[in-house]
TrEMBL record:
A GO MF term: sn-glycerol 3-phosphatase activity
Cross-referenced Pfam families: Hydrolase, UQ_con
Start and end residues of each UBC core domain: 195-357
GO biological process terms held by the UniProt record: glycerol biosynthetic process
Annotated source species: Cocos nucifera (Coconut palm)
Name of this protein: Putative (DL)-glycerol-3-phosphatase 2
Length: 362
């Protein structure tokens, strides 16, 4: 689609590239507890994507705190900064950044955080800083999001009209800012249950693993192995639901009531296969299915959804970090056994074609 061809990609940071919300999710709860207050989930969700200064003033007012907005910021910001190094790249982010950089696509980072905080956050992510031609914070423009200023300024500094830019955002505040700038917008909602509110975006994805550059005139990804996509290891603990056998596989469901469900990003939605470790069974191959109810709505095609999220995970086990020697051995196994990964993927596709999707959502 030539009319949709883009010349540059503008990216938000928090919740889009970096899972800072999850890394810092309990900070406000801990802070408010000192004053005998409990966070209001609905109000806090509405603040996603807001400038810190704006959110701070609202929090002080909403919870009737005996502090000024500046005093609140001074007290809570060190607590957030302590957690930033723990924030991980969201699914598909490193893959996308490497791909666009490899093909010379101009990249800009445009965040409602101040520049100093942006620099700190991305300093913990290998290769990120040098991948962006432009890095802009809210202190670089007159008005933050939902004003379009930051995206207009990013496009201006790149020397590209905003209408030829693609913005990738996770928050409604950011999506509105991007649309107001005249750019095309792909939304990857941090909160999956809010998908219906993102209708103004050109596309709404569950994760950046579903992003298709070719739809925008950009080079297509080259890493698919038939119907399987090798990705970076995904580490999780205690996430297996009910186990049952199927043609030699140990099949499980990631369910909403799993005790540690919160450790998996909301964007992890679909069908996965890799390894899990249980004390009773040891390490074994598993299929993990988490199908969001949204794919059963008219706007989603279940078949396409399954195709785009069928991923071969190099390691899915309770290892504490990527340097674990066991996970390294598993990664080498997948690298030298791509044919097996593809064969496994074909079996899963056949299996899912006769599986009642609604049963997976219960």
């Amino acid at each position: 689609m030539e009319k949709d061809r883009v010349l540059a990609v503008l990216l938000d940071l928090d919740g889009t590239l970096l899972d800072t919300e999850r890394a810092t999710k309990n900070i406000l709860k801990e802070f408010l507890a000192k004053y005998g207050k409990v966070p209001d989930a609905e109000k806090e969700e509405s603040r996603l994507g807001q400038m810190h200064k704006e959110a701070a003033a609202a929090i002080v007012k909403d919870y009737d705190l005996p502090l000024s907005a500046d005093e609140f910021s001074e007290a809570i910001m060190p607590m957030y900064q302590e957690k930033w190094p723990q924030a991980k790249a969201l699914p598909g982010v490193n893959r996308l950044i490497r791909h666009l950089r490899k093909h010379g696509v101009p990249l800009a980072l445009a965040s409602n955080s101040i520049r100093r905080h942006i620099e700190t956050k991305i300093s913990h992510q290998k290769g990120w800083k040098e991948s962006f031609s432009i890095i802009l914070g809210v202190d670089d423009v007159k008005h933050g999001k939902p004003s379009p200023d930051i995206f207009l300024e990013a496009a201006k500094r790149l020397g590209i009209d905003s209408s030829a830019c693609l913005v990738i955002e996770d928050s409604l505040v950011g999506v509105r800012a991007a649309k107001a700038s005249g750019a095309k917008v792909v939304a990857v909602p941090s909160l999956q249950h809010q998908d219906e509110h993102y209708s103004i975006a050109n596309f709404v994805l569950h994760s950046l693993l579903e992003f298709q550059p070719e739809l925008w005139g950009l080079p297509a990804f080259e890493d698919w192995v038939q119907n399987a996509l090798p990705i970076e290891p995904l580490y999780a603990r205690d996430l297996l639901g009910e186990l049952f056998p199927h043609d030699g596989f140990a099949v499980a469901k990631i369910t909403e009531d799993c005790a540690s469900y919160e450790f998996v990003p909301d964007q992890v939605c679909g069908v996965f296969f890799g390894w899990a470790k249980l004390e009773i069974h040891g390490i074994f191959k598993v299929v993990l299915g988490r199908i969001c109810l949204d794919i059963l709505k008219d706007k989603w095609s279940p078949a396409l959804q399954i195709r785009t999220v069928l991923l071969s995970i190099q390691a899915l086990l309770s290892a504490p970090n990527p340097d674990d020697p066991l996970s390294d051995n598993i990664a080498k196994h997948w690298k030298t056994n791509e044919a097996e990964a593809v064969e496994t993927g074909d079996v899963i596709i056949e299996f899912l074609s006769i599986w009642d999707l609604r049963a997976m959502c219960k």
